[in-house]
Amino acid sequence: MDQVLLDFLIQTQGTVILVPLGLLLVHVVVIQYGILGGRRGRLTAAGYLFAFDWSLMMGVTAGRTVAGDDVLFWSWHTVGWGLLGTLVLFLPMWRLFRRALRFSGIFLLPAMPTRREHREKAGRTLRAYMWGLNYPFYREEDGEVEKIVDGKASLREGGPGFVMASSHYAIPLTVGTHYTRIGGHGLVFTRRKEQPGPLVDLRVQVCGKAVHALTRDGIPVSVMMFAIFKLDSRKAMDEGAYSFDPEAVFTAVQARGVGPEQGEERKEIGWDQFVTERAADLLRGEIARMLLDQLLESESGDGVPAREALRARVAKDLQASLGPLRVHVLAVGIGNIEVEDESVLDQRVESWAARWERRRLEREAQGDAEATRLIEEARADAQRQMIVAITEAFQQLADTGTPVPPHVIALRFIDVLDEMAASPDVQRWLPATTQGIPGQLRLLMQPGATAGESRSTGETASN
Questions:
Q1: Which residues are CB-neighbours of 413 under 8 A, at least 6 positions away?
Q2: How many Å apart are CA 392 and CA 298, to the nearest integer?
Q3: Which pLDDT does position 1 carry in this prediction?
Q4: Beta-carbon-side half-sphere exposure of residue 276 (alpha carbons within 13 Å)
C-alpha cells in the first residue's frame, strides 16, 4: 500500500499535495480578511472566492478537454490550465471591478473628478466599505457632524473614511486631543484614527446678545448688541467663494472657552460665541465708565452721538483684542439703551422734562428779546423815513418861493403821516387804531381853513 502511494506521488510530481495546499491557503487568507470586515467583508470574500473558483474550474475543465483521459487530474498540466483560466477570467474581472468602483466613487461621493488624488481615494473608500474595513463616514447636518457609517478607525490596513459637509465649512481633523490638519470645500478623506472636530463656518457671522451692565453711577441698563465678523482669509492658499487660511481656522478652533453659567452648568462655547462674549465684555466695561446722563445724551463733547461714540470704541477695542485670533471684525452695532429700574426711569423722565422746560423758557426769552430789538429797529427806521419824508416835503414847499401859511404846513405834515401809515413796512409795527389818526387830524384842520387856502393847499399838494 505504501509503495502504491509512493509511486502515485512520484508520478504526479507532488502536485497532489502542493496544489490543494495552495488553494486552501488562498481561501483561508481571503476568508480571514473577510471575517475582519464583519458581515460586508464576509459577503465580499464569498464573492471573490466564487469568482476565483469559477475561473479556476473553467481553466481546469478546458485543460482536461484538451489533454484527454490519459493525463492525471493532479498534474502540472491541469495546474497550468487552472492558472491560465484564473489569469484570463478572474484577473480581468477583478481589474474591471476595481475600475468600476473607482469610477462610481466620483458620482457617489462629492469628489472633484479633475483631481487624481480625489478619484483614487473615492475608489479606495468604496473598496474599503465593501470589505467592511473602512474608517467611519461623517456627514454635516445643520452645522453639526453626525456619524452615518461606523468603521474601524484604528485599523492599520483599513480606510479611508470621509467627512462630507457644506462648502462653506472648514473641517478640522483630530487624533485624540490633537488637531492634525484642516480640510474643507465639501469633502475631506480621513486617515487612520482621525475624526472631525467642530466645524468652522467660513461665512460672515452676525451674532447678537442682550447685554446687562451698570453705569458709573450704579444704574442697571440693558442694550442689544450685535457683532459682524469673519475669519481672516487674506493669506488663504486657495481661491473660491469660501477660501480659508488653515492657520486662521486652526487658531479659531483652539479659541474655545466657557460661557456664562446656565443653571448649574457652564457651557463650552465655540469661536464665534467667544467673539460675541468678548464684545459683550468690552461693552460692559465702556458702560461702567460712563454716567447715565452721558450714556443717554444725544451728543457727546465732540458733536458725535454718545451711542455712536460708544459703538466705535467697542469695535476698535474688539478688533485689537482679536488680532491674535485671526478674526476680522466688520462692524459692531448697539441698539437702544434701556434703564431696567422703572423708578429710576421715572425720575430721569422728570429730570429731562424739567431740563427741556428750562430750555424752552430760555428759547422763548431769547425770542422775545430778539422781537423787541427788531421792533425798536423798525420804529427807529420808521422815524428816520418820516423825518426824511417831512424834510423833503418842506423842501418842496420852500422851492416854490411862496409864503406858506401854518395850516398848510400842518396839512402837509398830515399827508406825510398818512403816506407813512399806508406803507406795508410800517403797518406791520403799528396798531390798527393808529392808522386813522392822520384822517382825524385832517378833519380837525378843515374848520380853520378858507376855501381859497384849501384850493391853494390842494394845488400845492398836487405839485
A1: 390, 393
A2: 58
A3: 45
A4: 19
Domain segments of the chain: what residues? 2-108, 134-201, 205-340, 346-462
Q: What is the pLDDT of residue 100?
A: 86
CA distance 211 to 208: 9
Residue whose cell numbers read 457644506: 166
Contacts of 360 (CB under 8 A, 6+ apart): none
| pLDDT > 90? residue 108 | no
What is the C-alpha separation between 232 and 246, in angstroms, rounded?
10
Residue 143 has pLDDT above 60, yes or no: yes
Q: What is the number of other CB atoms lying within 10 angstroms of the CB of residue 294? A: 16
Section 108-123 average pLDDT: 80
| Residue 374, number of CB atoms within 10 A of its CB | 11
Arithmetic mean of pLDDT over the chain: 77
Q: Other CB atoms closer than 10 Å to residue 446's CB: what's the count?
A: 10
Confidence band for 107, pLDDT divided at 50, 70 and 90: confident
| Residue 267, pLDDT score | 64
Taking residue 253's Cβ as centre, other Cβ atoms within 10 Å add up to: 19
The answer to whether residue 11 scores a pLDDT higher than 70 is no
CATH superfamily of 205-340: Band 7 domain (3.30.479.30)
Q: Does the pLDDT value for residue 265 go beyond 50? A: yes
This prediction has a pTM of: 0.63
Q: Where are the beta strands (DSSP E) in 314-405?
A: 327-334, 338-339
- Written as nine digits, the cell of 157 is 490596513
Closest to 200 in 3D by CA, of 234, 239, 168, 228: 168
CB 138 within 8 A of CB 189: no
Which residues in 85-107 are b (16+ Cβ under 10 Å) and which e? bbeebbeeeeeeeeeebbeebee
Q: What b-and-e string marks burial along 109-132, b requiring 16 or more CB atoms within 10 Å of the CB?
A: bebeeeeeebbebbbbbbbbbbbb
- Is the CB of residue 414 less than 8 Å from the CB of residue 389? no
Q: Cis (ω within 30 of 0) for the bond into 160? A: yes
- In angstroms, rounded to a whole number, what is the distance separating the alpha carbons of residues 303 and 366? 24
Scanning the structure block, which residue is given the C-alpha cell 486617515?
Answer: 191
Residue 88 gets which letter from DSSP?
I
Separation between Cα atoms, residue 282 and residue 332, nearest integer Å: 11
The CA distance from 207 to 228, in Å, is 7
Distance of CA 120 to the CA centre of its chain: 37
pLDDT digits 0-9 by tens, 393-433? 667 666 666 665 666 666 666 776 666 666 666 666 566 66
